[in-house]
Amino acid sequence: MKVELQHLTKIFPNRNKKIHSDVVAVSDFTYTIPDGQLVGLLGPSGCGKSTSLYMICGLQKPTSGKIFFGDDDVTELPPENRGVGLVFQNYALYPHMTVKQNILFPLQNLKGSDKLTKEDMLKRTYDVAKLVQIDDLMDRKPSELSGGQQQRVAIARALVKMPRVLLLDEPLSNLDARLRLQTREEIRRIQRETKITTVFVTHDQEEAMSISDTIVVMKKGVVQQIGAPQDVYDNPANLFVAKFLGTPPINVFNGKVEGGKLYIGDDAVLNTNIENDCEVMVGIRPEGFVLDPNGPMQCKLNGIEVMGRDVSVVSVNDACVAPTIRSIIDADNKPSAGDETVRFSLKMHKVFVFDKATEERIHYEVK
Amino acid sequence: MVDSKQQWKAWLYLSPAIILLLVFTGWPIINTIRMAFLEGYRSLEAAGGATYQIGFGNFTKVISYGKFINCMKNTVLICILTVPISSMLALIIAVCLNSIKPLQKLLQTIFFLPYVTNSIAIGMVFAAMFNIVGNVVTGSIQSYGIKNDSNRFFGGHWIDWNNVSSTYSSNITVMVVYIVWNALPFKILILLGGLQSVNKQYYDAARVDGTSRVRTFTKITVPLLSPMIAYGVITGFIGGFKGYTSSGGIFGETMGPAQDAGRLNTMVGFIYDSLSNSYQGRASAAALILFVIILIVTLLNLYVSKKKVHY
Fold it and tell me: What is the ipTM of this complex?
């Protein structure tokens, strides 16, 4: 089922009399989620990603704009008539019911022609429990389950009524690091097996990048960029997206373009085809640095962190916005710890130039 | 643990409370038990040097006493009627109050007012509302009371609720109405508190799953509130068994309509009567019987709620 969002906007009326403008939670969100895809809504807290999810779900009404599931306009439909499954951030499993009763609950709500026989309900409950691998926990109460198991029950409860769209609100935020890794693969597997169009919300870029077919990066209610995770990483539309994706984060420098030359501080690092002289921000991915005794960029060496496969070189440059620069270098080729300075040359496709005022990307080619 | 050298300080700080509790709670309890087992104990005689045998005489006398059996019957009947009714009503009112957004605070205050009102005063007001002024037997009536006025307005016949021609069942009805009304605020308060602490996401989840309102109420709200409901029921039973002011407020000192004084007396009422006639032994025995009844009912409640209260 494809999900089409048309100019989706949500404005919360302002109750604070000191501020006169209303709060725009989501602004003009237009995007069509293709059938069977896993889409991650990504952004810092307060960016409108959860509001968008709740609008797709039907728990919140959009101020304007339309939502289509396939060809059906569902904008005015209440959540129960949309055929959505929602997994809450803290799972919202009914504490007084066993796992089995929790999963059965949505099926028992079905009325009229959709009503199932007892055997069918049980069969579907056990099928979905098997899918999420909790079929041996059916008689436990949620309080007797681990976080990961509760998460699976919540997913099973959302899936059991065979929703047209599956929605997950911060599905991994309550799990510890190891379980998070495992569960996100699990979510991916379940989504692949069921082929249900799935939208999930997260503030963790790694999580979104690792399992999504498409990510939607949002900031203050406005969609910044939509694309496949690798494309968005390799080709950020603006400084915000560049900064938000990637660990360790991108290094940002104050720079300028003069006569086509890109300067970071006083070092001319690249020859570009940018014609106008201007002040810019330069973003360089940690993996964009190459140790080179003759490289154009000179930094003071601050330390080396060995991470096994790679080493992380921490250095200082006055033009950098952050106190230190973090670059990731092949372990075979690390600088010796006694060095005072390091010199880098840069991988051009890892260097992004942004307009200083608008923070929009300035595309360029190296001459 | 407190260092043993410092323990005397802890005892010192606790001593005012402990002394007061011993004098006003501990000793009376022990003394009640003592008096209950001294046959025919009367404190004035005891002060005069009379001695009493130890035995169950007070208990057998109390149990075979018609007035006591009547009081017990009244008390049990009132408990069985009022606790379920008030719990049910409180639940419905609390859920309704919780779903109202405008004026919620004002309405909460109004529903809580009976709790801060003197119960004797409430009893008198209720008595007045049900009261008929005039001679019921000859039919020269000046006022039928608010309740009968509304009965008559809807085409019903007037009923003598609490006057000389009233029946036992109409007396009980008045008391049940009064006790339920009086018990509501506290129950509403704890249920409303419970409702407001229920995670809203359960209701969102239920909505997404297409749960009907009735099913949401019976399958989610009630189970999630079950600890508060159990608490309300248990304290309701305890309060009901200790009830006294209800009868006194409505019927005055006679504890019943004029033609049949004491007809609606309660167990606590019986204890007071015995005390005021200085039958301390009998009163103590009745108090112990009441204690045992409350204990059994509470244990029963706890046993049931352990099975029904979900978490």
Answer: 0.79
